[in-house]
Amino acid sequence: MGKYDFITAELADLKAQGLYNTIRTIESAVGAWTVVDGKRVLNMCSNNYLGFANDPRLVEAARQAVARYGVGPAAVRSIAGTMTLHVEFERKLAAFKGTEDAISLQSGFCANLSAIPTLMGAGHVLFTDELNHASIIDGCRLTKAERVIYPHRDVGALRRALAEHKAASRKLIVTDGVFSMDGDLAPLREIVAVAEEFDALVMVDDAHGEGVLGSHGRGIADHFGVQGRVDIEMGTLSKAFGVMGGYLAGRREIVEYLRQRARPFLFSSAATPADVAACTTAVEILEKSDEPVRMLWDNGRYLKGRLADLGFDIGHSETPITPVMLGEATTAWEFSRRLFAREVFAQAIVFPTVPKGKARLRVMVSAVHTKEDLDFAVDAFARVGRELAVI
């Protein structure tokens, strides 16, 4: 028996269950229409909420940054990798978020791995929503803190758990702001209130709320009017901002402590000049105008209405994220393949990203989709839905 036989068997099992992920290749800039595997298709599954991934203003900012600073800092931030670009971006981001300070990281995943293990340790207690993102789960696993997993969005259960652990020297509630697979929101106003009652810290992962929720896309804390009451806001720069990276924003002493002790900040090279300059430009655009955010929400409402009218199960999303629920993984993959044949790109989402039996297509609109684009997508969904007897 060969030493790799177990891997071959696992891959065969994934294919048999319909869980094998066929990874497609992007061959152009990411926009409303994108070249995928040699075919021009309507892109309905990227996180390019505001269309910034190919925005000429961000492209030009990146080009100028490379011309001045080169392609990379060639060091970690804490030794020789902090450039004026990083300092300027963090200052502007904190001002945009309405927080005292901000720290930028290499990714949203790194941001969660920076904050949670740095702030929590043995003798402390973490309270985490059962549907939190994998990066939150991994951040919690890296600590020696006790973990309490509370039912999804259940503030009553959270309060009871906090009461049971009120003697803990340090308590942290961590939750996604927007739950990315279903598009529903954390009840952040209520979470903050119960945290204040039990003297717990609150951290919100705003990866899918940044650029989407709140005034000019400032995020979920702004959306619920709890700015200054959330201790740590985490976000990504790869979704609405269309670039790459992550950040943590909050009270000055928390951010400074993360600069001193967060391992991804200390031991992984700094973000590239091109990325940082493009992200700074994204913040500047949103400061000046909320038009991209309004266009995103208009498109989201339009698409949801059309798909619901056709009889699709689109769940209970409160954001432009539109899950088209299909149940079995094999159905979801076949639906995705048939859409692609009709020039619509929407990948299947199956276990382990979502529970077994809850496979879906997560349809993602963008501010740069036109109504004609959305009608084209709806027509393809209608045809495939009838072919597969989904509607």
From TrEMBL:
GO terms for molecular function: glycine C-acetyltransferase activity; pyridoxal phosphate binding. It comes from the Bacteria. Keywords: Acyltransferase, Pyridoxal phosphate, Transferase. Its EC number is 2.3.1.29. InterPro entries: Aminotrans_II_pyridoxalP_BS (IPR001917), Aminotransferase_I/II_large (IPR004839), AON_synthase_class-II (IPR050087), AONS_Archaea/Firmicutes (IPR010962), PyrdxlP-dep_Trfase (IPR015424), PyrdxlP-dep_Trfase_major (IPR015421), PyrdxlP-dep_Trfase_small (IPR015422). It holds the Pfam family Aminotran_1_2. Residues 40-381 form the Aminotransferase class I/classII large domain. Its cofactor is pyridoxal 5'-phosphate. Belongs to the class-II pyridoxal-phosphate-dependent aminotransferase family. Homodimer. PANTHER family: CLASS II AMINOTRANSFERASE/8-AMINO-7-OXONONANOATE SYNTHASE (PTHR13693), LD36009P (PTHR13693:SF3). This is Pyridoxal phosphate-dependent acyltransferase or glycine C-acetyltransferase.
